């Protein structure tokens, strides 16, 4: 019996061992297959992530697969493609950055739009004009004007245009006038627009037109009077001595007014053309102001005005040109006397304030309405045109004052309220740091 069992064991055990080996081999094969499948799945997922990143223009993502076979080869090819795209995008961004630097250095506003009217490139000047960052928005959102929108549409079809239009100012002030040059891009679909802010030019044009109109009117008034009275004299009024004298007095008055107007125009032309040569030097402002007040004393007494002075006994030297400063002071004090009602009051004062000598000329009366204050220094601008002409003004005095004060390196301001109008003039003291930086202008 024992011998039979031993014989059976010798026959069965080798077969069992073989089956164990087979089972182990199958298990190992399954494990290796599962691991390979898992690796392929992970590699496939990484490939998918890289492809999605490239689709979103993220060219920095890489698969970095080290496995052999087709998936590994595909991953390495995809990484090489991503590298080329990243290099190309870097060069493109570098060119765009250089272009943006150039555009930001320009004085003009620039807008580049694609075929859908969306802004792809612009500069800081345009953002400053409209008050917000326009890149990525549409041209319609950036510039709200129908004529400009039509020009953009026509440029998409190859038609260039130059047009002018107004837009609201960002700060709510004067509306801006823009000249837009709209052109199609040469080598791809899209439109480039260059904007020139011509607001200052249009304001200057309007000022010139107003100047010509006002000058013509101011010249025509005395000329018409002179001609009319001269013709009356020629037609027989000279036979009446009383009428003759009255008419000649009128002619002489208008001739003097005409002469004053021509002189003021000539002065203003020199000042604005920077043809004035000022020999700057120490000027005793207090003493000069005292002389001006005394020189106009007869006019103030004739109207019964109370002239109150302060600080005129101080020397207070300023760096200026005496004749120019005197002309400024005469204009200011003379205006104060002219526009003060009878029995009113004029105040003239001078004092040192920091590095400046401050001169203030104030007069009682109805004052200047707030809406007129910003324009009182304009040529021919009058708050009350009829009264100004009646008082003999040319409408150029304060404009001359403004230009002379600028030549002297000073500042002048005006305010009105509470029954008073005040002009304040600030001129640098002789020892002021601002005096050292000024030079004579010619």
Topology (SSEs and partners):
Blueprint: H1 2-55, H2 69-104, E1 109-113, E2 119-122, H3 124-130, H4 139-142, H5 146-155, E3 161-167, E4 176-184, E5 191-197, H6 199-234, H7 241-272, E6 281-284, H8 285-295, H9 297-302, E7 306-310, E8 317-320, H10 322-338, E9 345-353, E10 356-364, H11 385-390, H12 397-407, E11 411-417, E12 420-428, H13 433-436
Parallel strand pairs: 7-9
Antiparallel strand pairs: 1-2, 1-5, 3-4, 4-5, 6-8, 9-10, 10-12, 11-12
Structural class: alpha+beta
- Number of helix segments? 13
CATH architecture of the largest domain: 2-Layer Sandwich
Main sheet makeup: 5 strands, antiparallel
Do you know the CATH topology of the largest domain?
Answer: Heat Shock Protein 90
Would you kindly provide a written description of the structure presented here, covering whatever features stand out?
It is a single chain. Strand 11 and strand 12 form a beta hairpin. The relative contact order is 0.06. By secondary structure, the protein is an alpha+beta fold. It contains 13 helices and twelve strands. The protein has four domains: 97 residues, no CATH class; 91 residues, 2-Layer Sandwich (Beta-Lactamase); 71 residues, Helix Hairpins; 156 residues, Histidine kinase-like ATPase, C-terminal domain (Heat Shock Protein 90, 2-Layer Sandwich), CATH 3.30.565.
